[in-house]
Structure formats: C-alpha cells, structure tokens
Amino acid sequence: MTDALTEDSFSLGCCLRQAERTACRVIDGKAVVITIDTNELHVLNPVATRVWQLSDGRALSNVVEQIIGEFEVSRCQAEKDVVQFAREMLNLGALQVVESDPTQGFFLES
Amino acid sequence: MLAVECGLDAPRNYGNPEYSTGRVMQADRPLKAQQSGQFFQQFVIYAGVEFRVSACLDIYEQLAQLPGLSFEREAAQVPLAVVECTFERAKTPETEPEPFTGDRTIEWAWSGNVCTITAPYARVRLVKSLSAVQPQLRALATVHAGPVPLAAVFSAIASAIAILREGAVLHSASIEWEAGVVAFIGPSGAGKTTACQHVPGARLFSIDRLLVAPVSGGQWQAFSVPGGTPPSRPWLRKSRVQSRPLLAVFGLRHAQSATHFEPLSSVGRVALLRQCAFDGSREPAGAAETLGNLVRLATEVPIARLHLRRGENLELKLREGFAKGFRRQPLACQSHGQRERWS
C-alpha cells in the first residue's frame, strides 16, 4: 500500500486511484479534495485536478499521455510533474496504489 | 444507561397523544406520572427543530432546566424539522459513562433513511420515514444514566437533520439584523462574538453554532443553536427568535487598517466554509454530501472575508456593503476537453 511505497519503487508504471476515504468536488475547474481521516482540505490547480480525475486505477504513464494530449507541455515536464504530484497525494493519503493485472485488465488493490 | 427513544416507533409512549404546550413543569403532573410510570409529553423548540418529546420523569425534570428552549412557535418561524421524541431510562447500565468533553464530539452517519448519532452520553438512532403527507422523523437513542447533557442530544439531532435538509452546521457567532441573520465564522479567537458587538443595532442570534439550510427560491434559513460562551460584557440584546433568513456569511480577520470586505474566489469561499463547518460524518459519502452542501451554500449566499478593525462601527460597513450589493456568486465547473496552457 502507500506506506510501503519507496522513492525507488515509485515509477510511471504504478497504477493509482483516488483513495476511498476522500471526498471531492470540482469547483471552477479546481478540485477540492478532503482527506477524511486527517480532516484536511486540499485545493488542486486545474492540471492537478485533471490528474486527480484520471486517477481511476490506470498507470501513471497513461495519465501522462492524457495530460500531454490536453495541455501544452513537453513529455519530460509532464512526467516529472505528474510523478511529483502523485507522490505528494500518496503521502497525503488522497491517492492509493493499485496493482494491475495485465492479463485480465482488472485492477487489484495491493 | 438511559434509553432515549424519539419517535413514532414507540407506540407505547403515545397513549396520551396530547402534548403540553405550556411550561414544562406543572406541579401535579411529575409525581402523578412517577407513580404510574407514564411518560411526560412536551412540545419544545430547540435549534429550530420542533421536538415533540415524551420523557420519563428525570429526563423531564432536566428538560425543565435546559436553557434555550422555546415553547411556542413564532408566527413567521420556519421549523427546520418536526421530530417525535421519547425519552426513557434503560433498565440496566451497560457501560461506564465517558467524561463529557463538550458537544463537539458529535458524530453522525446517514445510511439510507437511518442516521446513527453519537453524542456525549448518548447514542441516537434517527429514522426518516416517508408518509403520504410529509416526511416524518423519529429516533431511537441510548444515553448514560444520571444527568444527561440534553442540549448535546438535541443539538446532535438538529445537526444531523440540517445535513439531511442539505444544509450545514457552522462554527459561528451571528446577529439578527435587518430581519435576517449575518453570520461571522472563523476559528476560536478570531473575534466572532466581538464582531457581533460592533453592530449596535443588532441582536445576538447565536454565539457558537449556527445551523443553516436551504429553503425555497435559493434562500437559506439560519437556525440558532443555544450554547456557547457569552461575551463577558454583553452589549447586544439577545434575539428572541430561533430562525431567520440567512443574509451573508463573513470569515473574520483582524484588520490593521480600516475595516473592509475582501471578495473571495469560488474555491476560497468553499474552503472558508469547510474550515468552519462541523462535519460529524466519518464516512466518505457523508463527507461528500457535506462538501456538496457547502458548495451550494457558497453559491447561493454572499460570502466574503471581513477584515475588522476593533472599535469601528460595523453596521455602517454592512449597510454600505449590502447597498453596493453583496451578491450570490455562482460557481462553475470547467470543461477539461479543451487544450489549455500548462500552469
């Protein structure tokens, strides 16, 4: 799970999804995310909001592809920012890692 | 333990359906009821909710001592809800009473039509049933033996109902002003009660907690919750009503210069409300519902940051602000389909 995730193991191959114990509303293009257990409120900018919305269990590499298609950004920059954002949200408990099963196409919670 | 059963699912308590509408204590009724084991029935209004209470003697006596009760509905008053309540003592104690830590320990969780409320010394099961005429609310609760903080129980029920009514519970001091309510929100020490005292023509509406819920036409109604620490030098008269239309909500900051209002972004308004809203739900669905209610509040009621300099007459500033037009600020969801610049 999130706690077991180390700097080295975290990569674009990781599959992330929104943690269950969160609540979110998108207001004027910005996501307001509440992490229930810490009772904290986080406001995401539009790009981070898009990454948040795309975090449905797909791999980060897929998220990067989508972001590149929607925003004027280089792949290098997008990869760097998406990974950094995902790591921050993991630390906050807002995202969680899931393991994908490539043969079935299902996502399994790790 | 003491069982507090509230509602229509307690038919044995409704042998005498006539609710008293006078003062709680009547000299001959308590003793009579004690001997016969009957329940006392009383109509009271607390935090804008009409409670039709049936209670055993000791609870009934505590009810008489509860400040902030009203026994008659004001003609223009819009009740938050009507709840059938029955209080009774459980036969055997179950657990040792936990120390009373204040009514902020209230938690609730709606699951379908049933809400489980945990308050100090009390556990209330609130049930919503839909009749052909109107929704009915009833509850089943268990509270510890001995003196019960009835205010916390009533407050907890009212808070859960406010969420059910798509409203919110705000940590707020508020004033009754110009036939409506102006709410000041902020953390403890922000100067909420002090701000109230800066409006000389107003009446103190609530000190610590305020329930707000939408009514018709995009309007919101404010319901005062009794309690809170009154100001040491109360300059304002206390409001005599429990509900009024909500005019505006202001987040407080101390001002170094002149008193002024600062407009907030849409997200800023929601974040401000969220910081000062009680969220008794610990489940994602409940938290999302509360957040959705706050978004609606931020859309339908003027909300701004108030930088207040002590000693300045806030009433003049309020008049000026409303004349210029504190107005609703619709929130919009942005489309993500178009190509945007990286930011």
Explain the overall architecture.
- The complex is a heterodimer of chains A (110) and B (343).
- In chain A, 35% of the residues lie in helices and 34% in strands.
- With 110 residues, chain A is α+β, with helices and mostly antiparallel strands.
- With 343 residues, chain B is α+β, with helices and mostly antiparallel strands.
- Chain B contains 7 helices and 19 strands.
- Chain B has helices at residues 29-36, 57-65, 150-164, 192-196, 266-275, 284-300, 314-324; strands at 2-6, 40-46, 49-55, 81-87, 107-111, 114-119, 122-130, 135-143, 168-177, 180-185, 203-206, 209-214, 220-225, 237-238, 243-254, 260-262, 277-278, 303-308, 340-341.
- In chain B, the strands form 2 sheets. In chain B, strands 1, 2, 3, 4, 5, 6, 7 and 8 form an 8-stranded mixed beta sheet that branches. In chain B, strands 9-10-15-13-12 form a 5-stranded mixed beta barrel.
- The interface between A and B is medium-sized, with 28 and 29 residues.
- Strand 6 of chain A pairs parallel with strand 19 (340-341) of chain B.
Short synopsis of the structure:
The complex is a heterodimer of chains A (110) and B (343). By secondary structure, chain A is an alpha+beta fold. Helices cover 35% and strands 34% of the residues of chain A.
Distance between the termini of chain A: 6 Å
> How large, in whole angstroms, is the Cα Rg of chain B?
21 Å
N/C terminus separation of chain B? 58 Å
The total count of helices of chain B amounts to: 7
What's the SSE pattern of chain B? EHEEHEEEEEHEEHEEEEEEHEHEHE
Please give the largest β-sheet of chain A: 4 strands, antiparallel
Helix-strand blueprint:
The complex is a heterodimer of chains A (110) and B (343).
Chain A: E1 15-18, E2 22-27, E3 30-35, E4 40-43, H1 46-54, E5 56-59, H2 60-70, E6 71-72, H3 75-92, E7 95-101, E8 106-109
Helix pairs in contact in A: 1-2, 2-3
Chain B: E1 2-6, H1 29-36, E2 40-46, E3 49-55, H2 57-65, E4 81-87, E5 107-111, E6 114-119, E7 122-130, E8 135-143, H3 150-164, E9 168-177, E10 180-185, H4 192-196, E11 203-206, E12 209-214, E13 220-225, E14 237-238, E15 243-254, E16 260-262, H5 266-275, E17 277-278, H6 284-300, E18 303-308, H7 314-324, E19 340-341
Parallel strand pairs in B: 3-4, 4-8, 10-15, 11-14, 15-18
Antiparallel strand pairs in B: 1-4, 1-8, 2-3, 5-6, 6-7, 7-8, 9-10, 9-11, 9-12, 9-17, 12-13, 13-15, 16-18
Helix pairs in contact in B: 5-6
